[in-house]
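Writing this down once: the sequence line spells out the residues, with the fold written below as integer tokens. This is how one looks:
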Amino acid sequence: MPAAAVARRTRTALAPALLAGGVVALGTAACDGGPERPREPSLPVGRAYADSALAWEQRYFYWASRVDFAAQQAAVRARVTGQPWTYTAADSVFWGAVEYSINPWLRQAPPDAPDRHSLFFRPDVSPGKVDASPDPRNLASGVTLPGASGQPVLAYVWLPGFTGRNREGRADSIQTVIRQLDTSAPCGWLLDLRRNLGGYTDAMVAGINPLLGDAPASATQPGYFGEVDRDNGRALFFVTGGRAGLYDPARGESFTYVATRAPYTLRRPGSPVALLVGPATASASEAITLGFRGGPVPYRSFGEPTYGLTTGPYGTYLRPDDGYLNITATIMFDRTGRLYGTKLQPDELVVTGPAAFKYDQLTPTPRADDPVIAAASAWLRQQRSCTGAPAGLSRAPSDAAPAAVAPRTLPGRVRPLPDAARQPRVMAVPEAVFRREQARLAAAAWP
């Protein structure tokens, strides 16, 4: 069967268009020049900029009890005192001061591993303020993968991160990809998260709702994953019928963040899903990976350990330039109540070497010699939906059918969530930060 390809692009006003050759695309135009700049602010703004960052960190940082905030404030203020605010100076002084307020002051606070989710996004990459890049690697897309003679096809979905302006548009376009691929009646799905540095979890999860299945959240239903903060405030994240959001169990309130326009259901609901993960599977995409654990859909993960941000940030825009500050405020747990906070190990380790198939080599068009895709495809073709066996779906040997999920059993009294937790949140790593970290690791490993 010929491969069916689907591509997606984002713009503030979403406009579907049918293109030749069986490809469906949603067009995009990049934002002109990033966020608008206000007129030059007065001299005291620079110190207020840094002080607002410091206040946010002290209010929400998960390991705040381990930080000397008085010393931190004095050190950060010393960097900005007497500096006039201009946008050139902001680039060299004030943005740097905010980054300094995180590193070294917050990085080493956790007892087990360095905090890597507290991050500052400079205004030119500020989440929700700058449109998604038109680079095809940053757009959701998919193809079908034919099998041997007489075998049904598999469906491959490329799911990159998303921090753009139009969350509903991204969710709709992901479902457009899935809807188009499903016309080929695939017997299993590959979901590639290896170039997904995170972003708006709700947008991506609403999009993949047909693959993940529904996961409601209530007093007795766990959602698809959750978070707990330092005060035992808990958030349960739900997705159902193309709607994704957060449930506050202490108040019994739900907040829908994204709703798709035309929710889609697979022709074969509950089809098996192979998750492709690696070092650039970070933050929101790690939450997506957790979302399959303990759920009803047969799944297995393939690749290498993830980036290691199974924590959750609370974020704020700093005025006047809309730089975005994310501060680690929560630890993730899956729908069974298991806490994380570290890297996720794949169910099947497939090491691709120091150069091949890493971040820059990955493209939306799957390579025939990609060993991770080969391993995932082999597992999918062993599932009953692909072998033609008449009974339901089978699981991998390590994926026992989940027991009935009990209400949350995390210790302590559940407290209401703060306002910062009840807003749509960005769970992402800026690409520049990821690249710096990878360069450091490569230099450290050089013989």
Remarks:
- The first strand starts at residue 6 and ends at 7.
- The domain at 6-33+127-431 is CATH 3.90.226.10 (2-enoyl-CoA Hydratase; Chain A, domain 1).
